[in-house]
Design a protein that fits this description.
This protein is mostly helical. It is built from ten helices and two strands, in the order H-H-H-H-H-H-H-H-H-E-E-H. A two-stranded antiparallel ribbon has the order 1-2. The N terminus is likely disordered. Pfam families: SEC-C, UPF0149. It comes from Giesbergeria sinuosa. This is UPF0149 family protein.
Length: 277
């Protein structure tokens, strides 16, 4: 598995599906949405949410995921061959369409990366979550500005991304229910534990700065290990559900009438003298 340091914004656009300018555009778009709604997440959260959708057992469409991420969570009713209704948080239909376009391209890039055979993975085409070492960024600021920010909670590496991933898992629990196969269920549990570990604070002794090797350390060795484990977990989750396929709803067969009961066809005869003969 690649070093988590390589997951920082150094890979070429082809590996993420979006250019640096388009990522800046997404940040600006989400900031604009916050002028109309308070609970609009950062792109890192959105990327974790998106990655969970890619790994989900069932393909979840925009009529479900868009209101869950940016609306009230209610599924949008869409008639066949009709466009998706506009969520109130978007300024106009064009803004919503642009978000979905960029979201979809990132989705495609993540899916392609996760579906690559191990022998074909390279530094450029392997899966790289959109994460930022916020603590390192804050550490590089002037003292007065840094002190103001440090008065608030600063997320650890990958924490916001992992929270976005688990937000999707928690809101589609039926798609993440443990399989009956014990080995597969353990595989699922171990992989999700790897993601959940990133939702916790990095409380270890800082040893690395991802942006400046001469700057103050902001990430612990344990966090780097947890980050690598989470990357492996994403591959495992995609492979698990791909191998099992969509859930099959069991259909309960209606009980047959007793042989002396009236036949269900309505003939008036006993079942044994009619359809049960």
């Amino acid at each position: 598995m690649n070093s988590p340091i390589s997951a920082q914004p150094a890979e070429p656009p082809a590996a993420r599906g979006l250019t640096p300018d388009e990522l800046d555009e997404l940040d600006a778009l989400l900031e604009d949405l916050r002028t109309r709604a308070e609970e609009i997440p950062q792109w890192e959260f959105c990327d974790g949410f998106l990655t969970a959708l890619v790994c989900s057992r069932r393909l979840i469409g925009p009529n479900e995921y868009l209101p869950m991420l940016l609306g009230d969570g209610e599924v949008l009713e869409v008639a066949p061959d009709q466009p998706l209704p506009q969520l109130p948080v978007f300024a106009n239909a064009e803004q919503q369409a642009r978000f979905l376009e960029l979201f979809g391209r990132r989705w495609q890039a993540v899916q392609e990366s996760l579906d690559l055979p191990v022998e074909q993975r390279t530094e450029d085409n392997a899966f790289h979550p959109e994460v930022e070492d916020v603590r390192a960024v804050v550490a590089s600021l002037p003292e007065a500005e840094r002190a103001e920010i440090e008065a608030h909670d600063i997320p650890s590496l990958g924490q916001v991304w992992a929270l976005g991933f688990m937000f999707a898992v928690e809101n589609w629990p039926e798609e993440w229910a443990a399989p009956r196969d014990k080995e597969a269920a353990q595989w699922l549990n171990d992989a999700l534990d790897g993601i959940v570990a990133l939702t916790e604070d990095d409380t270890g002794k800082p040893s690395v700065n991802l942006y400046d090797e001469n700057g103050p350390a902001t990430i612990s060795d344990r966090r780097l290990d947890d980050f690598s484990d989470a990357l492996a977990a994403v591959y495992d989750l995609r492979q698990l559900w791909q191998s099992m396929g969509p859930r099959v709803e069991s259909v309960r067969k209606a009980p047959e009438p007793g042989r002396n009961d009236p036949c269900t066809c309505g003939s008036g005869k006993k079942y044994k003298k009619c359809c049960g003969a």
